[in-house]
Please model this.
Amino acid sequence: DQADHPVVCVSWEDAQAFCAWLSARSGLACALPGGDQWEWAGRAGAAGPLAYGAGTADFAKWANLADAEFRRVPSFAPWGLPRGALPAWRPAVTNVSDGFRVSAPVGSFAPNAWGVCDVHGNVAEWTGDAAADGVRRLARGGSWWSRPQSAAFGEAWPYVPWQAVYDVGFRVVAAER
Model:
């Protein structure tokens, strides 16, 4: 059972629909955070490229990013055949191990200064922002597939709004109406 893992494979359109449903059900104004909101909450006053420091810092306590566990290719016994769809050459920081090959339970890593968990890594998050083309929507924060420099503040990945992405989920901002 992985009910404590973040949701993934949800399109931006589906995340927006969930926010609308939650708004109607809760009476609160629920939405995906804008990129500026997402970064402000993620930074929690930090000035570096990542909430926990530099891109070269040991992230094992702070983030589920591409590391030695991600790079490991387990095999089936007794034949030794490789398993998993992840190629052994995938880029990773091999001198760090956060203990998870792919997603981790929500809140498995230390929060930032304001108590926000999983700012970088685990799964990237949809934001309310559109890409420069006005069509694609932006995800931020990186995932278990990302190296630290790809998960840094200011980095974003554009996807078409109907695309459900294997390592992208979402976070909701709620406010009184």
User: Anything to note?
Assistant: The beta strands are 29-31, 75-76, 81-82, 124-130, 137-140, 157-159, 168-170, 173-175. The chain has four helices and eight strands. The two ends are 36 Å apart (CA to CA).
